[in-house]
Amino acid sequence: MHFLGITIFTSTRLSMDIDTKEKFRENRDVTLPQKMPSHYRISLHIDDEEVVQQNARSYGYRVLRICDPDPDWVQKVLDEAERVRKIEENNN
User: Fold this and answer.
1) How far apart are the C-alpha atoms of 17 and 66, rounded to whole Å?
2) Separation between Cα atoms, residue 60 and residue 54, nearest integer Å
3) Is the Cβ–Cβ distance between 44 and 61 less than 8 Å?
4) Which of 29, 51, 53, 69 is most enclosed, with most CB atoms within 10 A?
5) Are residues 89 and 64 part of one domain?
6) CB atoms inside a 10 Å sphere around CB 55
7) Going along the chain, which residue ranges are E strands?
8) Are residue 63 and residue 88 in the same domain, yes or no?
9) Backbone dihedral region of 17: left (phi > 0), alpha (psi from -120 to 50 degrees) or beta?
10) What is the pTM assigned to this prediction?
11) Containing H/E element for 90?
C-alpha cells in the first residue's frame, strides 16, 4: 500500500504518517526548522548535518551527530539512546 508516496508495511507506520500530516497542519503558521523532532515526540534525532545540531541547541531537542566515516557509529547510537532513555525514565 502507498500513502503519500511512502510504502506502508504496518498499520503503525500508517498512523504515524497521518499523525505527521496532522502535526504539520497544526504548525503551518509557525516558522520552524525543517527538522523538529520534539514536535513529533521523538526523543533523539540522529543526523549528520551541523545545522541540525545547531537547531537542537536553539529549539531544545536532543541530537546525536554522526559523520561519515565513523566505524563506531552503531555503538555511539546505542550508547546515546540508552543515556536518553535513562534521562526520560528519571523525569517521569
Assistant:
1) 25
2) 10
3) no
4) 53
5) yes
6) 21
7) 2-3, 6-7, 45-47, 63-65
8) yes
9) alpha
10) 0.60
11) helix 73-91
Residue 48 and residue 63 in one domain: yes
Residue written as grid cell 520534539: 38
C-alpha cell recorded at residue 24: 504539520
Q: Which residues pair with 46 in a beta bridge?
A: 64
State the residue for C-alpha cell 539512546: 81
How far is the C-alpha of 62 from the C-alpha of 59, rounded, in Å? 9
Q: How far apart, in Å, are the Cα atoms of 45 and each of 2, 5, 70, 77?
A: 25, 23, 17, 10
Q: What is the pLDDT of residue 63?
A: 93
Residue type, 35: K
- Digitized pLDDT (tens) for each residue of the chain, 92 residues in all: 333 333 334 333 444 444 555 555 555 555 666 777 877 888 899 999 999 999 999 988 999 999 989 999 999 999 999 999 999 889 87
Same domain, 9 and 44: no
Burial of 36 (0-12, 13-18, 19+ CB in 10 A): middle
